[in-house]
Structure formats: C-alpha cells, structure tokens
Amino acid sequence: MVRILLVLLAVAGVCFAQDTVAGDWTFTIQTPQGDIGVNMTLKVDGSNVTGEMSMADGSRKFPIAKGTADGGKVKLTVKRERPDGSSMVYEFAGTLEGGKIKGEISGDMGGQVATMPWNCSRK
C-alpha cells in the first residue's frame, strides 16, 4: 500500500511539473513568404517569465522583454530590432493546457496590427 501511494505521489509530481510554461518550446509562424520555425526557452520565477526566442535555424535570437504566467494564462512581449534601426514589438497571449500553449500573436507591421495563431508544443 505504501508503494502504491509513493508511485501515485511521484506520478502526480511529474504531471504537476509539466503544468508550467518553464522549459523548451517550439512553434511555427505562417507568413506569406513561408513558414518560420521558432524555438523558445522560458524560465519562471513566481509569475514572472523570462527567456528568449530564436529562429529554428539559429540565425537570430530575441530576448523576452516582459513575461507573465498566472493561472495557465501566458503573456509575453518580444522586441525585435530591425537593421534600419527601428524595432517591432510582438505580443504573445495564450493558455497553457495539456502541455501545449495556444493563443494569439499580435504585432505592429508598419502601422497595422496583424494577428496570427500561436500554438506551441514542448520540444
């Protein structure tokens, strides 16, 4: 009986540990020029989320400027510096459920806000 209880506690601990945004993630952004693979590493301290996103090919990295996670809700802000000196800000908002993050990305694309789906899976 004690063994069964210990096994159940261990399994519950593993399940609980996976119910966090911390860790390595991957997602794809669909653009008119083609799909772009993105990797993301997140760290959580209380409700604060830090980390970085990088192109799947490793060509560019973008730190997370601001991030929060609260009750399964995730919000991230990423600022991308452009070669011309301007910058673009992307807002990511999603919900962690079943080991996946699903939500929406929005960004200012030359004065117009564009939105697209955001579907992350663990690496």
Brief summary of the model shown:
The protein has 123 residues and is mostly beta strands.
Q: What does this entry look like structurally?
A:
The longest helix has 17 residues, at 2-18. A hairpin with a 5-residue loop joins strand 3 (48-55) and strand 4. The chain has a single domain (21-122), classed as Beta Barrel (Lipocalin), CATH 2.40.128. It has an 8-stranded antiparallel beta barrel with strand order 1-2-3-4-5-6-7-8. Helix content is 14%, strand content 65%. Mean pLDDT is 86; it is low at 4-17. The chain has 1 helix and 8 strands, in the order H-E-E-E-E-E-E-E-E. It starts with a helix and ends with a strand. The chain is globular, with a radius of gyration of 17 Å. It has 123 residues and is mainly beta.
Q: Please name the CATH topology.
A: Lipocalin
Q: How is the biggest beta sheet arranged?
A: 8 strands, antiparallel, barrel
What is the helix content?
10-25%
Q: Which strand order spans the largest sheet, edge to edge or round the barrel?
A: 1-2-3-4-5-6-7-8
- State the name of the first-level CATH class: Mainly Beta
Q: How many helical stretches?
A: 1
What percent strand?
Answer: over 45%
The CATH homologous superfamily: Quinohemoprotein amine dehydrogenase alpha subunit, domain 2
Task: Write the H/E string, N to C.
Answer: HEEEEEEEE
Number of domains: 1
**What is the subunit organization of this protein?**
single chain
- For the secondary structure, the number of strands is 8
Mean pLDDT across all residues, rounded? 86
